[in-house]
Write a structure and sequence with these properties.
The chain has about 700 residues and is mostly beta strands. The protein has 8 helices and 37 strands. The protein has a 22-stranded antiparallel barrel. It has a 5-stranded mixed sheet with strand order 1-6-7-4-5. Strands 2-3 form a two-stranded antiparallel ribbon. It is globular.
Length: about 700
């Protein structure tokens, strides 16, 4: 990525911001009173998710920007039930909710990623972490498990929606700079405003870091924006656009002994082949919304293009993908029998086409492509219809029922016969499922709710599971791979009383045909269906105001903490009994003791994660870790703000994530460990007008 991109992008965004700053402030003041119809605000999302009889959360952009905004953990580390760990101190992360993708050691599966309510996951269900930037978010909405059904999601993990500001919600502009350890630097500028029936917002970010480990340099540039037009009463259209240029060196995994000796070292094979994951991504989407008071409807269309260059130790992967998705949704809030009532009906269809190729290397060193090993046109098609009915059976007691019908087809068109004996490796398969949900929500008080639900989830494989690769780099589809499904029972409560705010959910899921990764050799992992597994756990968030008022400029002291317990295990397996599934810690706790007064804040932070097995026999594991930190800053909304923070102040050596061991080889000799960042200090400053 050219270094000229950063000043050019900043100059463009600053000129837009200056124009917005010169706009008539009276116009901006009037327009901010109008809520957009085509997207959500943080307050509207909190109201909406508060009506869901299950685990949900809304994380405000203002809270995210109280510290560094470099990784997914920076944004979602304090969201109950969300396990997120950067793999290489970067945006590439290990993201899981309720054990989703428990052994997916790369990218993402089992969680539906959205941007402004529209999918940024690929049509086959896989996902990337570099498609959006939390520094540019208005808020992030999280639905855990099948609680995302009313938005088309029916996966074990749920859905995450990163929502951008609009010219209505974020008039004016901002400039933000961050920097710190391991060569980290980031610049963010944004501007928004409105004039009559038009509003617009644009944000630009550019970041770079050398990284804590060797060969972990990262460069990212993103541009996001939207343009809204209220062209008739109750009718609004919004056009969304985004561009991302992501260049990421991959240091690879090392053995536990190597990590303990020198956690900054990279895997020698990754250095030899200059392993990386680079791509530009382009996304454009449009949503048309109608509001007739108690009835609302919307239709949307989105397109995304990604061009991946991905050299690894064993070979080079290139993928050029095009994804389209169309969706429509109807929400009706007419009262029934004099009581509250809501009916949701929606449909979605998507198609993704990928030119997928693998190569050997032309030389013993470097990643220059050699002979082609596989060439396939991979097409993913999916369609879903869903409906949900929510009714106030008695005062403050809501009953909820719904279902999603899902159809998915994966097709692999082999355009290269690898060898005469390999033959044509083309193939296709269709998966169908019906996923019902029943729930109850009791609104005991306006600020206190209790809930329970029973739901089914279903996940067809992505191409990463469906297409298997052997040591020659040849690929072939797995025609016998079943869809992973689960029945999940959930009970919980959320609310606030006096000095206490909480979010507490317990769940138990019986999973069938869970996707398990079995490593056969370096860089060679195949996916198999397990017979029966169990996922159970607790997702808890607890904020205790120990001293001071709820709001205002007077001093207050608050203890914020989240605890996630997840026990993911085999269920009387013929080979592994009730062993824990390798890949994720059973306990994760994060906390902050924060002092605030008149915009100033300071706090001590801590993060604990238990050890976890890296093999099916549960004989070898990553050790537990406790990281201590501190941060302080000033933020009054508009005007100047700043922060400084220290992380891992004891410079502890620990595993952030691990792979899954090859059962045929001693686990302690395998390169499975990804060390976390050492001691780091970061600081930033911003100006909003």
């Amino acid at each position: 990525m050219s270094s000229r991109i950063v000043p050019t992008a900043l100059a463009v965004a600053l000129s837009v911001a200056a124009s917005a700053a010169d706009a008539d402030p009276s116009i901006i003041l009037v327009e901010t009173q109008r809520e957009p119809l085509t997207t959500s605000t943080a307050s509207a999302a909190e109201t909406e998710l508060g009506l869901v009889p299950g685990g949900t959360d809304v994380v405000s952009g203002d809270e995210i920007r109280k510290g560094r905004t470099a990784t997914w953990r920076d944004a979602l580390g304090m969201s109950p039930g969300v396990y997120v760990q950067p793999r290489y101190g970067s945006e590439e992360a290990r993201l899981s909710i309720r054990g989703s993708g428990v052994q997916r050691t790369f990218h993402l599966r089992g969680i539906r990623l959205l941007a402004d309510g529209q999918p940024i996951s690929l049509a086959d269900g896989g996902g990337d972490f570099q498609a959006t930037d939390f520094a540019l978010a208005d808020h992030v909405a999280v639905w855990r498990g099948a609680n995302a059904l009313a938005y088309g999601g029916a996966t074990l993990g749920g859905a995450i929606d990163v929502v951008s500001p609009t010219g209505l919600s974020a008039p004016g502009g901002s400039v933000r700079l961050e920097g710190g350890s391991f060569g980290y630097g980031k610049a963010v500028v944004s501007s928004g405003g409105s004039d009559g029936d038009l509003d617009a917002w644009i944000g630009v970010s550019s970041s770079r870091q050398i990284g804590c480990r060797d060969h972990s340099h990262q460069d990212n540039v993103r541009v996001q924006g939207n343009l809204g037009w209220r062209f008739a009463p109750g009718v609004e259209n919004r056009l969304f656009g985004a561009y991302a240029d992501s260049d990421s060196e991959l240091p690879g995994s090392i053995t536990r002994q190597q990590m303990e000796d020198d956690p900054q070292q990279a895997n020698s094979g990754s250095v030899l082949r200059d392993s990386k994951r680079d791509y530009p991504l382009y996304r454009i989407a449009d949503r048309l919304a109608f509001d007739w008071g108690e009835t609302r409807a919307e239709a949307s269309l989105a397109y995304m293009r990604k061009e991946l260059f991905h050299p690894l130790a064993f070979g080079l992967i290139t993928q050029d993908s095009d994804d389209w998705v169309a969706a429509t949704r109807l929400v009706d809030d007419h009262r029934l029998g004099g009581r509250g009532n809501r009916f949701v009906l929606g449909a979605e269809a998507g198609v993704g086409v990928t030119e997928a190729r693998t190569y050997g290397y032309a030389a013993a060193v470097g990643n220059t492509p050699g002979a082609i090993a596989s060439d396939a046109l991979q097409t993913a098609r999916n369609a879903a219809i869903y409906g949900e009915w929510r009714h106030e059976a008695t005062t403050d007691l809501w009953l909820v029922g719904g279902a999603q019908a899902q159809w998915t087809e994966l097709e692999n068109d082999d355009r290269l016969l690898v060898a005469p004996s390999a033959g044509d490796q083309s193939g296709s398969k269709i998966w169908r499922s019906l996923n019902p949900k029943l729930g109850v929500l009791w609104q005991a008080r306006p600020e206190v709710a209790a809930f329970a639900n029973l739901s089914r989830s279903s996940e067809p494989p992505s191409f990463a599971e469906y297409i298997q690769r052997d040591l020659s780099l040849a690929t072939r589809p797995q025609q016998d791979l079943a869809a992973q499904s689960a029945w999940t029972a959930e009970i919980g409560t959320r609310g606030s009383v006096e000095r206490v705010a909480w979010d507490l959910t317990a769940y138990y899921a019986e999973v069938r045909d869970e996707y398990l990764a079995v490593q056969l050799g370096p860089g060679l992992t195949v996916t198999q269906n397990a017979d029966a597994t169990v996922h159970q756990g607790v997702e808890a968030g607890l904020d205790l105001r120990l001293w001071g008022p709820e709001s205002g400029d007077d001093p207050r002291l608050t203890l914020l903490q989240t605890w996630t317990w997840g026990r993911f295990r085999f269920d009387d397996d013929a080979q592994w009994g009730d062993n824990q599934l390798p890949g994720l810690p059973e306990h994760v706790w994060r906390g902050e003791l924060r002092f605030e007064q008149a915009g100033w804040y300071a706090g001590a932070t801590a993060e604990y994660q238990a050890g976890w097995p890296v093999d099916f026999a549960n004989a070898f594991e990553a050790e537990s870790s406790l990281l201590l930190g501190a941060r302080a800053g000033y933020d009054r909304g508009r005007g100047f703000s700043a922060f400084i923070e220290g992380r891992n102040l004891s410079d502890e050596v620990y595993a952030a994530t691990t792979g899954v061991a090859n059962p045929a080889t001693a686990a302690d000799t395998q390169a499975l460990f990804n060390p976390g960042d050492g001691l780091a200090v970061n600081a930033g400053a911003a100006w909003r007008w």
